[in-house]
Amino acid sequence: MPPSPPDVDPRSGYCAATKTFHSLRAPFPMPPPDRPLSFPAFAFSLLPRPLPASRAALIDAATAEPVPFPAFLSRVRALAAALRARLGVSPGDVAFVLAPAGVHVPVLYCALMSVGAVVSPANPSLTAREVSHLLALSNPSVAFAVRATAGKLPPGLNTVLLDSPAFLSCFLHGEEDDTKAIVQQSDPAAILYSSGTTGRAKAVVLTHRNLMACNAARGPATGEVLMLAVPLFHIYGFTFCLRVATSAHTVVLHTARRFDARAVLAAVARFGVTRLALAPPALLAIVRAAEEDQTVVSAVATTTLQSVSFGGAPTAPELLARFSRKFPSVSLMQGYGLTETTSGFCRVAGEEESARTGSVGRLSWGAEAKIVHPETGLALPPGVPGELCVRGPFVMKGYLGEKDSTSAILDSEGWLKTGDLCYIDKDGIIFVVDRLKELIKYKGYQVPPAELESLLQTHPDIDDAAVVPYPDDQAGELPVAFIVRHSGSYLHEAHIKEFVAKQLPDAMGNLHTPHDPVVHYKRIHHVFFVNSIPKNAAGKILRKDLAKLAVQRINSKL
């Protein structure tokens, strides 16, 4: 049973009796869980009546092609009818989607879910071999692709091209019908693939109620203009693009293959964007553009942009400070979540939380959290770091076909282990320290790579940095750094080692003077200069690749 209100600290949401943190956000009405209801049906019920006929639901930023709200709903219904009549798509069928961002993709997602099919989007830049692995996990009966990606799919899989006349005719000649698929909220709605940065990819099963809870947690409709410069196959972009259906947002889609900071900001001005959703590498690109060209700052100052949302990977506090110095009128809204939690379950909201640099805000509606000791599993009080565990209606159904992997991360009481080292302060604000699996173990000491990366990125001659472990017989693991130098910089390895050694904090968080002994186990032992840091679509550093490269480079010197 949940604790009674007097047992919960109104400041932090912490209950000392259960050692559990509770969300203090305002509740959002959810339908009874046993009521048959698909996510699209729930989402469309939240749209205002009458629909804003003159406003676009979707806009392609590259072509300026708009899809007005009535056309969006009409397309979803017509496509749903075509899926049933032409393709024989039935409830429970898995539909694999291998296509770049475009205005047809959110329509397809909603149409598939409305007939009870399971949407399974994947990165269109994957190789045929990588696609084959994902297909083996989800076993789809139909696929949706474009001409450029269809060749990566096996010839025996029924495939529909989104850029073909046959698909487009579904919107023009599709007959809407009143056939309603019976969909339970507990039924699978989507299968997304975990990033695989710390292990092999897994197929994460999300239910219709998971998606309902995720969107409910973000609050009521505001009708803002939201630009997505994040992939729609990733949980971040996947859930955000569905906001068009739940919140009457105009969703502007960044459809270019490469992120161009100036082009994105030009689109912000052109379409009256109020909120921009980015991954951390894109945030860095915007900061660089602003630092190199004052006209970028001036252009944003005259726009409607109010906030930038970001998440998906750790973000250095220094990068946030650099952004705020250039764009003081734009709020930074960091969020945190996993594919396994249907995207974010905590987020920054309001000026007070936005000012807490480096935090990911407070728990969203419906969320409970515990901070536990990574080895003993004992729950810890506010302010003490440990593994973050979370529970709520947004937690996944499980990994498809992998009971052992599911039970290893999700217990019988619904608690999900995030695998992240975090702490929650006395105000209920959450701070992410690092991935537990990515902590570098030096003679029993734990070194968070993100801490060293944040420090390195404060150097004016460093554009980007990554820290990974290198095996050592005596120490166990040594921190080594990969550095992207600023254009024209002559930075050397010795400079970087000295820079880190002089600025490392002691156990109390105090910086050392140049004459003080430093925390020896956090020193950088090797430095490698590279042109770029390899990252996945969400902006997470591909540490496994860098760790292998470090071994190769060091061994080649021996």
Per-chain topology:
Layout: E1 14-15, E2 20-22, H1 39-45, E3 56-60, E4 66-68, H2 69-85, E5 94-98, H3 104-114, E6 118-121, H4 128-138, E7 142-145, E8 159-161, H5 165-173, E9 188-193, E10 203-207, H6 208-217, E11 225-228, H7 235-241, H8 243-246, E12 250-253, H9 261-271, E13 275-278, H10 280-292, H11 294-301, E14 307-310, H12 317-326, E15 331-338, E16 343-347, H13 350-354, E17 362-363, E18 368-372, E19 386-391, E20 398-399, H14 403-409, E21 416-424, E22 430-435, E23 440-442, E24 445-447, H15 449-456, E25 462-472, E26 476-485, H16 493-503, E27 526-529, H17 543-557
Parallel strand pairs: 3-12, 5-6, 5-7, 7-8, 11-12, 11-13, 13-14, 14-15, 26-27
Antiparallel strand pairs: 1-2, 2-18, 3-4, 9-10, 10-20, 15-16, 16-17, 18-19, 19-21, 21-22, 23-24, 25-26
Low-confidence stretches: 506-518
The CATH topology of one domain: GMP Synthetase, Chain A, domain 3
Radius of gyration from the alpha-carbon trace, in angstroms: 24 Å
CATH architecture of one domain: 2-Layer Sandwich
Cα end-to-end separation: 61 Å
Give the % helix.
25-40%
- The CATH class of one domain turns out to be Alpha Beta
The count of strands amounts to: 27
CATH superfamily of one domain: ANL, C-terminal domain
Shape by Cα distribution: globular
Tally of DSSP helical segments: 17
Give the biggest sheet.
Answer: 9 strands, mixed
Average predicted local confidence, pLDDT: 87
Strand content: 15-25%
Would you tell me the structural class of the helices and strands? alpha/beta
Widest beta sheet: strand line-up = 4-3-12-11-13-14-15-16-17
Organism: Paspalum notatum var. saurae
Protein name: 4-coumarate--CoA ligase
InterPro entries: AMP-bd_C, AMP-bd_C_sf, AMP-binding_CS, AMP-dep_synth/lig_dom, ANL_N_sf
Catalytic activity: (E)-4-coumarate + ATP + H(+) = (E)-4-coumaroyl-AMP + diphosphate; (E)-4-coumaroyl-AMP + CoA = (E)-4-coumaroyl-CoA + AMP + H(+); (E)-4-coumarate + ATP + CoA = (E)-4-coumaroyl-CoA + AMP + diphosphate
